[in-house]
Design a protein that fits this description.
alpha/beta; Rossmann fold; six-stranded parallel β-sheet; two-stranded parallel sheet; 5 helices; globular; oxidoreductase activity; Short chain dehydrogenase; SDR_DHRS6-like
């Protein structure tokens, strides 16, 4: 069986593929891969699912949110972030459930701004919180023993510190976040927010 990683070319995605590959067969995809998968374009998900056997797990590490002062954020900014990081991940779950084996799992991604906002993070904080809430609500409804969790990483970097509004915030290397993703894939938990690095 294969674990699907959507968003495999980002910093966390690359680390997740490397970590999961030690235990599973992994198919890593992104908007620039072949096949190309963009979670804001549901037809790309359908095309992928139609050409593969059911997956053991689906990991989503994709989705963008705007980061700007609240006064500068428009309705369109919020809608774009919701369409990408929130509704994009919801689409993966809704369309992917039929393409998971019994007892398979989804792992989504949010972030520490849901609990620890900074100036400029109003949209990101709201959308990360929405992802966390979706996972809690979806867990008891998924069929066939399918599990769902969300990994909420701290700031991710191999550098020792961030400046500006993130000064003093916890930082974790991507490899540490990947260990939380492995836990979500291989464990028995469901409906959980797995905090990585904070």
């Amino acid at each position: 069986m294969t674990v699907l990683v959507i968003g495999a070319t980002g910093e966390i995605g690359r680390a997740a593929v490397a970590t999961l590959s030690r235990r599973y067969d992994v198919l890593g995809v992104s908007r620039g891969s072949e096949p190309a998968v963009d979670i804001t374009r549901p037809e790309t998900l359908d095309a992928l699912f139609s050409t593969h056997e059911p997956f053991e797990a689906i990991v989503v590490l994709a989705g963008a949110v705007p980061f700007a002062p609240l006064a500068d954020l428009s309705r369109e900014d919020f809608e774009a972030g919701l369409a990408s990081k929130f509704l994009g991940q919801v689409e993966v779950v809704q369309r992917g459930t039929a393409h998971l084996v019994d007892g398979g799992s989804f792992t989504l991604v949010s972030g520490l701004l849901s609990d620890h906002p900074v100036p400029g993070s109003a949209a990101a904080s709201a959308i990360n919180s929405a992802v966390n809430g979706f996972v809690a609500g979806a867990a008891p409804e998924l069929p066939r023993g399918i599990r769902i969790n969300v990994v909420s990483p701290s700031l991710v970097s191999d550098e020792p510190q961030y400046d500006g509004p993130f000064a003093g915030y916890p930082i974790a290397p991507a490899a540490q976040v990947a260990q939380s993703i492995l836990r979500a894939v291989s464990g028995q938990e469901t409906g959980r927010v797995l905090r990585a690095g904070w």
